Amino acid sequence: MKEKMLISFSGGKTSAYMAYFLLNEWKDRHKYDFITVFANTGKEIQETLDFVNKCDIEFNLNLIWVESLVSKTYGDGIKHKIVDYESASRNGEPFEAIISKYGIPSQGMPFCSDYLKKSPIRSYAKELGWEDYITAIGIRIDEPKRLTKKKFSVLYPLAQIKYMTKQNINSWWDKQSFNLNIKSYQGNCDLCWKKSNRTIMTLLSENEDSMLWWKKMEDKYGEFVSEGKEGNIKYKPPYRFYRGQISIDEIYEESKFPFKPEIDKNLEINDLEQMRLWDFELDSTDGCTESCEVF
After folding, report:
1. What digits encode the pLDDT tens for the residues 35-78?
2. Tens digits of per-residue pLDDT, 242-284?
3. 79-83 vs 134-136, strand pairing mode
4. CATH superfamily, domain at 3-174
5. For 81, how many CA atoms within 13 A lie in the half-sphere containing its CB?
6. Rounded distance, CA 197 to CA 194, Å?
7. What's the CA angle centered on 191, arms 186 and 194, to 5 degrees?
8. Which helix (DSSP H) or strand (DSSP E) does residue 227 occupy?
9. Which of 97, 139, 252, 286 is least enclosed, having the fewest CB within 10 Å?
10. CA atoms within 13 A on the CB side of 4
């Protein structure tokens, strides 16, 4: 009997290559039954959704798109619903459903990857009757801090089978007929709270309308109220997405003043050298670059 492997496709270039490698090039692929799953939060930028769909078509991924399905009943776990490229949420609907029940995620409460990605993916696997399976995660050999031991079965193909660095991944994609056409600092989730404030300011300076959904969430759920086991109301202090509990309004106002913006590290080398001459900072602070990897 074949072993089961769930390929967790985040929507970024690294996990896309991982899926391609496992399904098309890995010498042991015949030993496994695969499913490839992408969890849509509703806040992925359109370029990411286009890329995910193109990978599915070009690489024969047989991709399953899932979204988080939240019950309003206390104690009910997060389930999933199956969507596709056409029907996938694009206005943050799954994300808001999570926020309406659990509050606003932040560095102090970093639950959105669990509830928006891991939970619906596991729910889908459970619906298939999968109990013992390996989850393949797109983390590279040059990301050692992200390679952690887990209580369940996880495989890091690009760090354990075929050693791949970010440079290797980008070189491979440069030879393909399509690519993920986003700037290096964008990431898949448009104004993800894991990004540095400088990155958020840069993105706001390019498209100030991108703040509207995040502002709506802070205005609507910033003073979050939850219902306990016995129906008692629990009040929580005002919460914001971003570092230091700064609001998106405050970051937006700060972006109106001069600052050193992030630059696109996907630029040609000559362009990067010119940026150095202009005294731009080339090293971003911590934050996401592709998307949250889940298992």
Report:
1. 999 999 999 999 999 999 999 999 999 999 999 999 877 677 89
2. 988 899 999 999 999 999 998 887 765 444 444 444 444 444 4
3. unpaired
4. HUPs (3.40.50.620)
5. 12
6. 9
7. 85
8. strand 223-227
9. 286
10. 10
